[in-house]
Structure prediction request, 153 residues.
Amino acid sequence: MTIDAMAATAAAPTGMYSSTTTTRTPNQSMDSEVFMSLLVTQLQNQDPSAPMDTNEMIAQTTQLAMMEKLTEMATASEEGFSLQMRTSAAALVGETVTYTDADGVEITGLVSSVSFAGPVPTVTVNGEPVALDVISGVTSAVAADAAEATTAA
Prediction:
């Protein structure tokens, strides 16, 4: 009995060995749980005749503590920046601001409200929402009124 190579290939089973596999996206960050898991695995699999150096273990534990503190500092910094943006946006209510719109036209108007719905606070100028980071200038409403009064006189 002869077996045709083409027929054998065509009739290959589509079971567990030939199914499509999904690719996993690797996690690029190491948190404390991953670090401790690696350390415990390393301790479990160490050679009993040559145990891990305690200085090395202390160094690794110190690195873990430093990593956690750096993560906490980064989070605190982001929160501080977010709070600063919100405070700055709230202080603009009642002020005259200047910004450049999408067409490149410079627009000046009075800020009437602030929205904190998105990642960047949005102020309402002449009825139009404007992102805080687009504003290029601020003039006090009192100073703007004084400037108009001297120009009109």
In short: The radius of gyration is 32 Å.
